[in-house]
Inverse folding.
């Protein structure tokens, strides 16, 4: 649908001197406007194969947007900002609730029914329908957050803008991400997974499923419907054996637990104190 736009972005990416031309600036700004409206995205689930694919040309447009923007002052009530990026507007028309002093940058897409408590969503990110971004949670550039997700207070969702070919953080539909969790470096959280408070998932974090007779290990990926808590594993160092942080899958969400489950309910199912 946007093949001509994609070709033009690729041409500008290869020859940055073209950014001086007004036509090139209009092209880049058109892509950001499409991002802002949710008509294009930096990553999406492929129609075939069920795998996520990165739309590199869209990420390139985001990177090209920065040098063509001038620093400006924006005032929001008594608050003042000094930045290159405009703040997102039109929340009422979009059906999005935004509690002061929450901020989303222009170029982020917030679907109808999203609730932003005092929190932050960066350019290129996409937040799905009915998702709660709770107090002091942050959603980094290009992160893909599904529908009816709960990002609890203080959650940090990393942004992966560069390198352009790298997959961003993906949190699929109906996940519950507990307080102060960190999900970064292109980590992928499968549909309906539950992360307990303070779980850290990076691209290299050891994720160990201990719910069966033998441990099953993953890196950077939490399978769908997993219930995850912080853990440690023993590692030898010159000074001795010490515990290294990891994440433990302690079970699966039960069929009786609907998609509106609370974190406490999901964890109590497995006898984990909260």
């Amino acid at each position: 649908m946007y093949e001509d736009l994609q070709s033009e972005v690729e041409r500008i990416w290869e020859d940055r001197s073209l950014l001086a031309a007004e036509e090139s600036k209009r092209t880049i700004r058109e892509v950001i406007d499409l991002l802002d409206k949710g008509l294009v995205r930096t990553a999406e689930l492929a129609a075939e194969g069920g795998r996520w694919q990165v739309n590199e040309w869209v990420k390139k447009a985001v990177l090209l947007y920065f040098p063509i923007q001038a620093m400006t002052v924006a005032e929001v009530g008594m608050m003042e900002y000094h930045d290159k990026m405009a703040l997102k507007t039109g929340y009422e028309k979009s059906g999005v609730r935004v509690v002061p002093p929450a901020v989303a940058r222009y170029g982020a897409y917030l679907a109808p029914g999203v609730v932003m408590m005092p929190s932050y969503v960066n350019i290129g990110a996409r937040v799905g329908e009915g998702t709660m971004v709770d107090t002091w949670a942050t959603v980094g550039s290009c992160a893909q957050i599904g529908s009816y997700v709960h990002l609890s207070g203080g959650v940090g969702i990393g942004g992966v803008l560069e390198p352009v070919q790298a997959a961003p953080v993906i949190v699929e539909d109906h996940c519950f991400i507990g307080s102060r969790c960190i999900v970064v470096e292109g980590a992928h959280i499968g549909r309906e997974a539950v992360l307990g408070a303070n779980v850290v998932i990076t691209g290299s974090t050891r994720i160990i499923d201990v719910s069966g007779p033998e441990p099953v290990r993953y890196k950077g990926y939490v399978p769908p419907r997993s219930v995850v808590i912080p853990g440690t594993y023993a590692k030898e160092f010159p000074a001795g054996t010490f515990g290294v942080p990891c994440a433990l899958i302690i079970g699966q969400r039960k069929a009786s637990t609907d998609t509106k489950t609370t974190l406490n309910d999901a964890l109590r199912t497995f006898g984990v104190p909260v």
